[in-house]
Design a protein that fits this description.
The chain is mainly α. It has 23 helices and no strands. The protein is globular, with a radius of gyration of 26 Å.
Length: 434
Amino acid sequence: MKISERIRQLRVHKKMTQGELVEGIASVAYLSRIENGQIRPSSQFLHLISSKLGVELEYLVTLDRNKYRDKINGIVQCYRKSGELPDEDVLFLNMHALELHDEQIHLQIYATLVSHYAELRDVKEACRLYGMSKTFIPDAYGEGQGEHYFFYYLAAGNLFLYKQNFFQANHYYAKAEPYLPCVGSCEAALLFLHISLVKQRIVEDKRVCFHYAQKAHDGFKALDDHGQLARALITLGFQSHLLHRHDSAMGYLIEAQDIVNAIGDSQLLAMLEYAFGCVHQSMRNDDDAICHFEKAAVLNESISFAAGNVYVYKSLVEIYRELKAWSAADDYLDEALLIAEEHQLHYDYIELCAMKAGAYKLRADEAKYEKEMQRLVAMCIVDNQLSHVKPLASELGAHYYDKRAYKKAADYCTVALAYDRKVAQVTQLSVPIA
């Protein structure tokens, strides 16, 4: 990258106008000619501009990419150990993402940046960098790059997990799994936990996700990582509830509760309260379930994690509908929809809209029900929410059949069958089920 292009890219990344960058230094016209490659900047200009851009002068004037290899390696290794990436390192990696480095360096840069922005829930920026990475990183695996491909695939999988595109997340986690021998036991346990969470959403046989959660639990226990162990225990408790093993679910959650109370993590405590609520809801202990869900909601609000309340409010809608407390159910459903839409939680948004459509049908407003269900089936296909297509299309097909609208019924039953087969192909089991 030429000096002129580096200046322009740094300015854009800093969200500065040309006038803001050269204020007190030079004219906008002078900077414009530099950025367009019409003139070379003076040494004095470069010295002053580098300070404003927050980079060393050497970075602007040195075009030898190999000179920065060790620095990039150092930044990446520090991030993998600490999970922290200072702003100056973010800027540095962003600039080098545009340079023509070799395969290893690009893998490190993009894995780090995509992971960093995904953790910050800056999905737009993470998606931009993921898109750029497809230009620079080859599809074919490079010999000796197993560790770097693992972290790149893990970062891509995590991004799609946050986006609730669970099939794409599953695709990248599956690509990462063969490279587990190249990484440590902590990274392996984290991958197993994430695979478990994804398969929980896309695989009908919940023993599959439980299998991976158990592997994550064993890994974190061996590492004596209390925080992640508690997370794995909560996941095992929730998935035991999905398998209707209520006693086992309570056992896992009580064990997790002892750890969470000791370390005092509010986010884990909110997850725990939600999981307890789900078990009680499944056992039809409505009062206990509501109590736990309300505690989870308060905890999520206290840590400004509004997205977590989508699941809480959805469960409360289900309970209040069972109790025929329609006003409370509608209020919680509206709140959940607002959160899901604001945070772009596509999977949850579709589930909540389907609940809204069910309310239309309950009130005998069949026109609104049909229109909303048609919209949702189309949205599922566009957004790659494949696991929602079959149940929604099947329900709509059955509705039309009952109305003797046989052509429409056949159309939606055909859609349901086609996507049932597609999901089966994508989610082929690759692990033994005990």
